[in-house]
Amino acid sequence: MTINLNISDTANPAIAKMVAELKGPQFITAAAGAVRIELRDFFAGLERSRANKQGWPRQHFWADVRNTVQNPIVPDPSFATVSITDKRYRQRLEGGFIRPTPGKTFLTIPANEKAYGHRAREFATCILDLRRTDTAISPRRSLKTGRRKSATDASARMVRAR
Amino acid sequence: MPFEEAMQSLARRDVLPSALTSAQQRQQFAAGFHRQNFTSAQTLLTDLLDGYKEKIGSILNPTTQQRADRVTETNPEGNVSTGLDVPTARLEIKQLLQKIGYQPGEGKAGTIQDLASDARINLVFQTNKDVMQGAGQFVQSQDEQVLVAFPAWELIRVEARKQERDWAQRWQMCARIVGDVGAARVLDTTGRMMARKDSAIWQALGDGMDGSDDTLGNPFPPFAFNSGMDVRDIAWSEAVELEIIQPGDTIAPRLPADLSQLFRAA
């Protein structure tokens, strides 16, 4: 992000002093700090406005992301970094494929409130419901999400937990 | 990039088994006890506490691996972020408790006192994760340049709760107790809970000086268990406008001794 500052009256000593003080790490810290606030406010807004679509208990994903927005690091007076360290955020921002972890074949997608926010192995019994798609039974091996699209068709796989 | 201050805050804690409840721990030990020790109410199982500490570290500090099967045009190094998430960490804690043969006390199964219940495990993970991140954010916020630009905090609700505690009342009482007239005035006139970052009100909230018994003893959020509250930086201009600070004021860094070692040098 580039921030441009235009000051037309530099003859005024008070303004000249202010301009001199604005240069350097103090200015960039303040500017980057404002970016951090904007990001945290934005995520707080998502936390408030995006309740679970199914009405299931919330996992507070956006509040978690908000907690990981760091204070700026200013390695030199012209450059600052504001990091978001929640590893899940990048996939939300850029989209892409969600795949099973190494050694596993399928993703497990919760079918009801009880399963939501849990691993399948937390349940004593777990029923895998494979639904037929157009041409064949197609348990989900990956999930592709885009930045603007919702999760792909859920008819290919469901997991019921008891 | 890892959240270094949060990780260091966790790494410096010694595992401490304890038979005391949280309220008893807060009453009996000095402020900062929980920042220096990793403990859980009425938990004497060292293996369990070690397990929690290790998993919280993995949640806070995702690492980056390079995998050949993940190489793409936009990701030529095949970078993959790894680290635990809360559901997986909870599963591993349950497996650990099974392995050591844990059984809840009579009539306690499924309750918050059952160390293997979702409610208990979630509370331990969430509280400790939030406190480590809160400590990290607090340490970062004590940078002198950050204090100049953002000299005040506002206490806000980030997560909704079915039963929300009366934080405005807590604020008023704590403001009165510590003598922060400005904090009390801003709440009365604007409905917002704002104070200078060096105000004693923040520690008062963390200590439950208004009589609350759900607090965590820290001058930074979360101030209480499962509160859903956090703080928001207030810029210098707004703080002056609301007369929380005067134009010539200086906000001094206010780091407790145990946290000053985590301070990131500018």
| Helix/strand/pairing category of chain A | alpha+beta
Compressed to H and E, one letter per element, the order of chain B equals HEHHEHEEHHHEHHEHEHH
Distinct helical segment count of chain B: 12
Q: What is the makeup of the main sheet of chain B?
A: 3 strands, antiparallel
Oligomerization: heterodimer
Q: Give the tally of structural domains of chain A.
A: 2
Strand content of chain B: 5-15%
Low-pLDDT segments of chain A = 132-139, 146-162
Report the count of strand segments of chain A.
6
Strand order of the largest sheet of chain B: 6-5-7
Protein architecture, described:
The complex is a heterodimer of chains A (162) and B (266). By secondary structure, chain A is α+β, with helices and mostly antiparallel strands. Chain A folds into 2 domains: 11-94, no CATH class; 113-160, no CATH class. Chain A is built from 4 helices and 6 strands, in the order αααββαββββ. Chain A has helices at 13-22, 25-49, 61-67, 89-94, and strands at 73-76, 79-81, 96-98, 126-130, 143-145, 157-161. In chain A, the strands form 3 sheets. In chain A, strands 1-2 form a two-stranded antiparallel sheet. In chain A, β1 and β2 form a beta hairpin. The longest helix of chain A has 25 residues, at 25-49. With 266 residues, chain B is mainly α. In chain B, the strands form 3 sheets. Chain B has a 3-stranded antiparallel sheet. The two termini of chain B are 17 Å apart. The A-B interface holds A 25-26, 29-30, 33-34, 36-37, 40-41, 44, 47-48, 58, 60, 63, 66-68, 70-71, 74, 81, 83, 85, 87-88, 90, 117-119, 121-122 and B 1-3, 62, 81-83, 85-88, 90-91, 94, 130, 133-134, 137, 140-141, 143, 145-146, 148-150, 156, 158-160, 228, 230, 232-233, 235, 266.
